[in-house]
Amino acid sequence: MRLTLLALLPLSLLQFGCAGQEPAPTEGRAPAATRQIIKPDHFPKDRPYSFGVQAGDFLYLSGQLGRHISTGVQPEGIDAQTRQAMENIGEVLKAGGMDYANLVKCHVYLDTMDDYTGMNQVYGSFFSERVPARTTVEAVALPQGAGVQISCIGFRDLTRISVVRPAEGTLPAPLGPYSAAVWAGDTLFLSGMGGQFPEGRRLPEPLGEQVSQTLVNIKTTLEAAGLGFEDVVASNVYITRPGEAGELAGAYAPAFPSSAPPRGLIVLPRLPGAIKAEITFVATRPEEDRPGPSAADETEGVARSRSARGVLYTRTESAREAGPGFEEQFRAVLGQLESTLRDAGLAPADIVHVHVYMADLADMDSMNRIFRETFPQHAPARTTIQEMPGDGERVKASLVATR
């Protein structure tokens, strides 16, 4: 992290905390998208995050656990918990004037990948025709000891939602109810993909070979949508072996010869099947006025952020150099994200969703307290999981904001 940011951190966080106040207009800034907090009337009022934030046609939903949202009761078994999480999501969708048919992308976080089949059976029952793109991973732990957490994005205009269907046999057969990619207006959400070959789902052993084949599968999907890697605006890479991160980087970089889009590198215990890496992308149709990457906006070839179609996506930030404690690291991470936000001409009130990856959920109370301080009004949606601890890293986070 830059020393100048550390020196200014208290002021920066004070500014970042005024989430309910509109900043002074930024010269040349386009009008903000209509932004509305979505909360069903009977949902709790004491959460430090919003259950949903609607910005334009998009609805960003916080991760929902398999617990009854009002009583806090968690049913037994993955079937009942998945159903409860999806019903909670349905309540937020309904409050936003939408339904399950409006979902375009979901992230499913399991406490154990052994529940993958049971989750699939219940999850799929909520969709009668089109299914969203989806990424499914196993977390180290989920809040409140839950067996499943599901975070989704909805899109209001059903006429502008469509599924991308690559030619039969060009992708590995899906292991569950998900679409390879789904258009939501001019934004394309891709499912998380692994490194299996289409023929018989054969999987190479080395991580680098898996990542190379994953990118081939993603390229097939992008081309079926009329796009390429240059149209990717955000990515998350999930791996199970942190010691092989260098091998991953070597296989990932060739897809982005000039500048890789903002990225999160998340270390988790297990992924679907035997894959060691899963990659998920967001892409958009080209824009004439899309700003290109600059050297000042990169670290090791990965962009700090990318703005496309009125949405800003940031990379996942960490701040172990801020000190050994959770609170000092989380405040520094928020400071880094605030700096990226301001550099893009946006303000805290423009944030719609924050992903938080913690090394230990025992720090959840501290994280919630700082989140409340940071967003005292109109908090963004939030999804929180525990990942495998890194070398001194206590917390990482990324955000999505809209103009």
- What string, H for helix and E for strand, traces the elements in order? HHEEEEHEHEEEEEHEHEEEEEEEHEHEE
Largest sheet: 7 strands, mixed
Count of the separate structural domains: 1
Name given to the CATH homologous superfamily: RutC-like
By secondary-structure content and strand pairing, the structural class works out as: alpha+beta
Indicate the CATH topology.
60s Ribosomal Protein L30, Chain: A
* Number of helical regions: 8
Percent helix? 10-25%
How much strand?
Answer: 25-35%
**Could you name the ranges where pLDDT drops below 50 across 5 or more consecutive residues?**
1-15, 17-32
Chain-averaged pLDDT: 90
> What value does the Rg take, in angstroms?
20 Å
Descriptive report:
- By secondary structure, the chain is α+β, with helices and mostly antiparallel strands.
- It has a single domain, classed as 2-Layer Sandwich (60s Ribosomal Protein L30, Chain: A), CATH 3.30.1330.40.
- The chain is 24% helix and 26% strand.
- The chain is built from eight helices and 21 strands.
- It has helices at 3-7, 9-17, 78-95, 116-124, 207-224, 245-252, 326-343, 364-374, and strands spanning 35-38, 52-55, 58-61, 64-65, 103-110, 133-138, 148-155, 161-164, 181-184, 187-190, 232-239, 263-267, 277-284, 298-299, 302-303, 305-308, 311-314, 317-318, 351-358, 381-386, 395-402.
- Strands 1, 2, 3, 4, 5, 6 and 7 form a seven-stranded mixed β-sheet that branches. Strands 8-9-10-13-11-12 form a six-stranded mixed β-sheet, with helices on one face.
- α8 links the parallel β19 and β20.
- α3 (78-95) runs parallel beside α4 (116-124) and α5 packs parallel to α6 (245-252).
- It is globular, with a radius of gyration of 20 Å.
- The model is unreliable at 1-15 and 17-32 (pLDDT under 50).
